[in-house]
């Protein structure tokens, strides 16, 4: 296995002094190592990371590095093809991509298609790439070729990183980090006990949906009311909006994460503009991309309440303990939407947290049956 420090030092030898990205579970050891060494810029989304890197190159002439999970590859295709591409501005950027769903490995359904098509996508885009080795000598050679190619062609180069490439590294974290006493799972448990039989729930990507699934099991509530957004990070609120506009007689609850909300924050503007009266947006804000290693988001520096109000939400609430959640919940529920409830929590999850045992298509069928029944 490859030591994150080894790759980091090699990159520094090639003159890389600007690294940023969107966290990924496969790259968490490298990303955390880089973060702890001062590379503390986490982008809103992968396209944003590439654009920031392009700006850095324009201002320094040097080659930056971005890292991302292949789920987010779609988010960089636009700036890859219309900004950094050789036929446009021709900007060199080293792009490290965590290869979830690599053929021959076991992974969750939402990672199968991105994994299976990853190499074909790179070929179709004409992007030079290599599969990162875990052997140090090999890596040195691979980097020499990557930097030579980037300098020669003045365009991006991709290092694809298969599962289990990196040795472990324990994230030291952000010293600015605040801590709240409430756990995400405790907040979710309180919420599902408050939701009614007819309430529709759309939950965000990562551990929120996994915890929601297990809590429904624990309380014998069934899973038919929940749409688990296992992929498509940042889009849960727009799925919920699409539902809310059709199901005006039912309350729709979107349970979002701070990383996900920031990833596609424009969604709030459209919810505010559409004014769905039945739209109840719940943000679980732990200030981190907790599901993939805990690297910080801008969640604790953003005033989400003000943003939502500025976008046209009718009312916003913010709580950081179960008592306050209890007290304000009826007001939140009975307020005309769109409304936002921000729940401040700590990071962390149970080590034995499982994954949904229903497939996405089973989830969809049960959910649609619930939505379409008279
Ligand atoms: C487009 C995209 N980029 C990255 C990922 C990897 N990913 C899965 S969950 C997650 C973190 C989500 O953070 P947040 O919404 O704050 O929820 P938390 O994990 O903290 O509960 C990330 C980055 C992804 N699934 N899709």
In short:
This protein has 374 residues and is of the alpha/beta class.
What can you see in these coordinates?
The chain has 374 residues and is an alpha/beta fold. The chain has 2 domains: 4-161, Thiamin diphosphate (ThDP)-binding fold, Pyr/PP domains (Rossmann fold, 3-Layer(aba) Sandwich), CATH 3.40.50.970; 184-373, Thiamin diphosphate (ThDP)-binding fold, Pyr/PP domains (Rossmann fold). The protein has 14 helices and 14 strands. The protein has a 6-stranded parallel β-sheet, with helices on both faces. α4 links the parallel β3 (65-69) and β4. The longest helix is centred in the middle third of the chain and has 18 residues, at 136-153. The termini are far apart. The model has no long low-confidence stretch (mean pLDDT 96). Thiamine diphosphate binds at residues 22-24, 69, 71-72, 75, 204-208, 233, 257-260, 286, 288-292, 297.
How do the helices and strands follow one another from N- to C-terminus? HEHEHEHEHEHEHEHEHEHHEEEHEHEH
Instruction: Report the CATH C-level class of the largest domain.
Output: Alpha Beta
Distinct small molecules bound, one entry per kind: thiamine diphosphate
- Return the CATH architecture of the largest domain: 3-Layer(aba) Sandwich
CATH topology label of the largest domain: Rossmann fold
- Could you tell me the strand content as a percent range? 15-25%
Query: So what's the overall shape?
Result: elongated
Identify low-pLDDT runs.
none
Class of secondary structure makeup: alpha/beta
**Rg computed from alpha carbons, rounded to a whole number of angstroms:** 21 Å
SS element count, helices: 14
**What about the largest sheet?**
6 strands, parallel
């Amino acid at each position: 296995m490859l030591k994150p420090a080894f790759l980091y030092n090699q990159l520094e030898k090639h003159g890389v002094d600007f690294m940023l990205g969107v966290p990924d579970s496969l790259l968490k050891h490298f990303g955390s190592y880089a973060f702890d060494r001062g590379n503390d810029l986490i982008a809103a989304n992968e396209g944003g990371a590439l654009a920031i890197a392009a700006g850095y190159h324009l201002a320094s002439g040097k080659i930056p590095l971005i890292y991302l999970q292949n789920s987010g590859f779609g988010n960089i295709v636009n700036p890859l093809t219309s900004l950094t591409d050789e036929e446009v501005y021709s900007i060199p950027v080293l792009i490290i991509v965590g290869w979830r769903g690599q053929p021959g490995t076991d992974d969750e359904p939402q990672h199968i298609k991105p994994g299976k098509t990853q190499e074909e996508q790179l070929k179709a885009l004409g992007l030079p790439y290599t599969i990162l080795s875990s052997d140090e000598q090999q890596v040195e050679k691979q980097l020499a070729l990557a930097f030579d190619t980037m300098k020669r062609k003045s365009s991006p180069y991709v290092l694809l990183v298969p599962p289990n490439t990196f040795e472990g590294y324990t994230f030291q974290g952000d010293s600015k980090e605040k801590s709240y006493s409430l756990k995400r799972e405790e907040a979710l448990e309180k919420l599902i006990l408050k939701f009614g039989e007819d309430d529709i729930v759309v939950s965000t990507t990562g551990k929120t949906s996994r915890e929601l699934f297990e809590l429904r099991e624990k309380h014998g509530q069934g899973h038919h009311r929940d749409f688990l957004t296992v992929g498509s990070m940042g889009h849960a609120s727009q799925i919920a909006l699409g539902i809310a506009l059709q199901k005006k007689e039912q309350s729709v609850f979107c349970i979002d994460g701070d990383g996900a909300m920031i990833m596609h924050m424009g969604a709030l503007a459209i919810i505010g503009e559409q004014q769905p009266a039945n739209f109840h947006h719940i943000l679980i804000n732990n200030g981190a991309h907790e599901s993939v290693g805990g690297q910080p988001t801008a969640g604790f520096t953003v005033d989400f309440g003000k943003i939502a109000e500025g976008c046209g939400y009718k009312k916003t609430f913010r709580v950081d303990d179960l008592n306050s959640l209890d007290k304000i919940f009826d007001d939140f529920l009975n307020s005309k939407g769109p409304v936002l409830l921000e729940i401040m929590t700590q990071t962390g999850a149970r080590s034995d947290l499982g994954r949904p045992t229903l497939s996405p298509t089973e989830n969809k069928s049960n959910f649609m049956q619930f939505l379409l029944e008279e």
